[in-house]
Amino acid sequence: MTMSATGNESLSRDALAVLQPGFAGTTAPDWVHRRIDEGLAAVALFGRNVATAGQVAGLTARLRAQKDDLLVAIDEESGDVTRLDVRTGSAFPGNHALGAVDDTDLTRRVARELGRRLAECGVNLNWAPSADVNADPGNPVIGVRAFGADTDLVARHTAAYVRGMQSSGVAACTKHFPGHGDTNVDSHHAIPRIDVDAETLYKRELVPFRAAIEAGTRAVMSAHILVPALDPERPGTLSHRILIELLRGELGYDGLIVTDGIEMQAISRAYGLERGVVLAIEAGADAICVGGGLHDEATVLNMRDALVAAVRGGELSEERLADAARRVRELAHWTARARAEAEVAADEEVGLVAARRALAVTGEAARVDAPVYVATFNPAPNIAVGHETPWGVDAELERLLPGTTTGTFTDAEAGPDAGAAALKAAGGHRIVAVVRDEHRHPWMRSALDTLLAARPDTIVVEMGVPQSPARGAVHIATHGAARVCGVAAAERIVAG
Length: 496
Prior knowledge:
This protein has helices spanning 5-17, 30-37, 53-66, 95-101, 104-120, 151-166, 198-203, 206-214, 240-250, 265-271, 273-283, 297-312, 318-341, 350-358, 394-400, 418-426, 442-454, 483-495; strands spanning 19-21, 42-45, 71-74, 125-126, 171-177, 219-222, 256-259, 288-290, 360-362, 372-377, 405-409, 430-435, 459-462, 474-477. By secondary structure, it is of the alpha/beta class. Strand 4 (125-126), helix 6 (151-166) and strand 5 (171-177) form a beta-alpha-beta unit. The N and C termini lie far apart (74 Å).
């Protein structure tokens, strides 16, 4: 294929336009500014880019001084997966807590207030909400990120979230299509496989995505999952059948299709990073999310060059790449208009209000007015959640009950002796045992067995999916580990 200099420049600009890369630091490096001049239409923010809301607002303002309709994306689900509050814990409960309350107006309010705060920081694309139906209780990567396991509940709250977020002028990105809930493998590490029939998929996994589309979601994120009933060969992100025939054709979706992180092992290990990018655009994706792990200029240039080479070599049509770039630019234009038109009043307490309503308490709660010992049994976090964000009830109980002491126990350090170690550390103090997805961690269950056998007055706080039977003198299920969930649980312990 022979192309003019102008054609080469246009092709390179389109290749850059479909990328949504991250970068290091709390200010954008020079290479980001250079690539924006050359056609880059979006950047992505992660926890490493966030110090304060004011700092993020300054960062995005400097980028927009260069390109006023730049897409600035973030993975801000609130709850367990937070980037704005990565060092403190989220001011909003996550999806599972909202699903437990089951008040769609509350979900809309939470999403609207979160969107307002994102917009104040200069963010205009949020890779949320998760519309996954958490059909497998052992799911290692979705869990409390889902509104629940009931299809209709997930659908109505997904729609409410999309409407709330977009009313603030921030585009919602509903994920992970065609549904990541019925998996027991984390796609950050390998390709999950969903072996259910097509009828189940249409009645369960696809229903929340239909609701999101009807609610007007401006973006949909693909999942790196293999669904043989839909496509026995390619994972969703690389599947023409799933992205074009199903999502665009059968479901009638006409917005932006964004990939999940392309450097995740489900794609990069199985296909190679550059090859995965080309296959994704060819299959029907319009934008490539990258930067959760790889966030350097060389990665961006390699992906750009791979797309350009694929067009020149005839593997990828120039029209498909141009169409993808057009959809990116159209979303950027929509966000500029929507933000200018949005008038959103602050609703600053809605996160704590929602967290309080989400609590489920079993047992006869008695007021606690003396110092306690907080034993937090901490599982290894998945990559989406990360390890930087604090969680639990210890900080709030230390504030409410001066003299309270705390300890953290992990499988790697304490393992089967975690319960005995907590008993020893507690001394004569009443114990508050904090767990997260007890049902998925035998060592955690064993630790609780040991504690409750010796100290039946132990208060148990479950901050994951409350799948295990409630036990302890008092059992509090928070339905998530956001900071406000910990605050709400601590308040309940002290108030009785």
